[in-house]
Amino acid sequence: MKRLIIKVGSAVLREKSKLSLERLDNLVTLIAKLKSTKEYEIILVSSGAVAAGSITLDLDKKNSLNRQVLSSIGQPLLMKHYKNSFSKYDIKCAQVLLVSQDFDSRARSINAKNVIEILLSNNIVPIINENDVVANDEIVFGDNDQLAAYSTDLFNAAGLIILSDIDGFYDKNPSENIDAKLIKEVNKIEDKYLQKPDNVYSEFGTGGIYTKLKSAHFLMQKNISMYLSTGFDLKYIKTLLMDKKHIGGTIFRSKNDLEVFK
What we know:
The protein is of the alpha/beta class.
């Protein structure tokens, strides 16, 4: 059985200033189908807590402390929706909140691994998010792309899937160049793409293509592959994993790929 981590971004899970329950349900339906094949074991890394919290309280989301407050409000709301959606398929889910120190400390990382293993062995889907309330500048990941990449390595997953409003890696910025071409497979990421740009922050999210390339680079060095695709139309990931056909999105393929993404 192949263990995969699926990370869904806040841009996918929100509709204007609210949660998109339709997209959340579509994602859960996909995970249920993947699990039903008995070929895949799924861990979910989910953004969306800030967006969920903003429904209850209107605060400036560019302020880091406000984001922590909104996350603390939104996290249980987000989990409630996941719980309700997974229950339609008789699947249980569990919340796992982590910070970067959980990966740096041997004792804490071993404990986290043990918890994940017990959840998976009992057919429970772990839903990971950063523990924003206790995270600070010294121990914060800052974006769930990095959290997902480190989780993929720590929890011995065969690959990472990032579902985003970015539908793949292009040879140039597709929002500025109509002739931009999707690169379906990447075997090496050039250093110039790993330099942090100035405009990666959005109202709800804290990522962009930079954080995704950084995550892919980290995993490729660990001989783990990553797949980046749109979270608005799940036919690409479904076709890749269930039909073994690569019709969209970008595979960042490691040298020793175990063919998790054929």
